[in-house]
Amino acid sequence: MRTAVINLGAIFTGDWREPFATADSIMLSDGKIELIGSLSASQLDACDVVIDADGATAIPGLIDSQIHNTFGDYTPRQKTVGFLESYVHGGTTTAISASEVHVPGRPKDPQGVKALAIAAKKCFDDYRPGGMRVLAGSMILEPGLTRADFEEVSSRGVWLVKAGFGAVKTAYDYVPLVQHARDCGMISTLHTGGSSIPGSAGIWGDHVIAINPDVSFHVNGGPVAMPDADFPRVVEECRVALQVCTAGNLRTLLWVADLLRKSDQFDRLLVATDTPTGSGIMPLGMLYTISHLVSLGNIPVEWALAAATGNNARVYRLNSGFLQPGRDADVVILDACVGGSQANAFDALRNGDIPAVAAVITAGIPRFVGRSRNTPAPVKRVRVAQTRLLQDFSGSAH
Asked: What is the Cα–Cα distance from 290 to 302, expressed in whole angstroms?
């Protein structure tokens, strides 16, 4: 399938250092970005779908780097079906498992956590709720796991591990387990802050520095933050990626971003929602956190967007997160909302507003065009200008 998006007012690349492409169109083909530039009439004629953006803004699909999936598009924590598909209407095109810890009766022995991770990973390999890519199957680190266990699950495609919910005596017991994961080329993540569910314990700065995971999850608290004295330490004494989340502490979220900006380490800042949790389901959570960083934390819009796209992609070694030729064809069209005081998506974010999600494309396939069911309508008239297919991809109104 070949899709084109034309008449774009701005194209954000996903890279905070070189944030904008000098172009007005994007061509997508066979699930990848084919080119970014200006398209000729003959190139448009060869497309299956042409979307007229009417001056709206293109960004890479948002990457929620911490969700609590189980099996299928269902969350037993909030007893809700279809939450992932709803997140697509909030501009999220990729979600990364924070381990399948919310599976009812989840196993806690080495064989069980291996089986759970493998099953979850394979269930989502070809399943895209609402068009979203879900990177599932993060093995929960439990006592008794051996180097051979990590080698086994890695050979079966599992590449994520999660520390923080296991039955360890102290958090320092995660140090050798995380090292086994690193030796096997896996990415390790760590619950950070106060306990979030019965049976878990607080994990603070000393633990983060000693364990040295790839990603310190919800460093601003999920939902309870670690002590203030620990924040400068994790910025200065390690190089772990520091993820901030919607379902956490707003004050420390803004502080972490400021510390990383001032220390010239902004690549380490990642944005996620950490949902569904006790805080609920948040289809617009990524956009709210971006707006908080921009309007309250004075972070440049393109930097905040990068923390939700390109920064996540680099840390997790993904081919998405950037609008560049050869990258995955995940594109979101944003604009200011009808009835607001701003004229474009970036000014809306600076004002503290969420932008309108006017279209979402994943794997080169339009999932909806014109209006998200979770945001007000866009100011610009984003529409399908040409299609050879039997559908117009109109978003369902609310």
From this structure: 10
| Angstrom distances, CA of residue 334 to CA of 108, 242, 287, 319, 378 | 43, 26, 11, 21, 8
DSSP 8-state assignment for residue 104: T
Q: Which pLDDT belongs to residue 38? A: 96
- The answer to whether the beta carbons of residues 353 and 38 sit under 8 Å apart is no
Q: What share of the chain is helix, strand, coil (3-state, %, to 5)?
A: 30, 25, 45
Query: In terms of residues, how long is the chain?
Result: 398
What CATH architecture does domain 2-60+322-387 belong to? Answer: Roll (2.30)
What is the number of other CB atoms lying within 10 angstroms of the CB of residue 325?
Answer: 13
∠ CA 70-72-78 to the nearest 5 degrees?
A: 55
Architecture of domain 62-283: Alpha-Beta Barrel (3.20)
What is the per-residue pLDDT for 39? 96
Three-state SS for 273-322 is CCECECCECCCCHHHHHHHHHHHCCCCCHHHHHHHCCHHHHHHHCCCCCC
Task: Write the single-letter amino acid at 42.
Answer: S
Q: At 254, is the secondary structure helix, strand, or coil? A: helix
pLDDT digits (tens, 9 = 90+) for 344-353: 999 999 999 9
Q: What integer pLDDT is reported at residue 224 of this predicted model?
A: 92
Angle at 271 between CA 176 and CA 134, to 5 degrees: 75
Element (H, E) at 242: strand 241-245
CATH 2.30.40.10 segments of the chain: 2-60+322-387
Query: Which of the residues in the chain have pLDDT under 70?
Result: 196-201, 395-398
Domain with CATH 3.20.20.140 in the chain: 62-283
- This prediction has a pTM of 0.96
The gap from C-alpha 281 to its chain's centroid, in whole angstroms, comes to 15
State how far Cα 73 lies from the chain centre: 16
**Residue found under tokens 């905040």:** 304
Contacts of 169 (CB under 8 A, 6+ apart): none
pLDDT at 397: 56
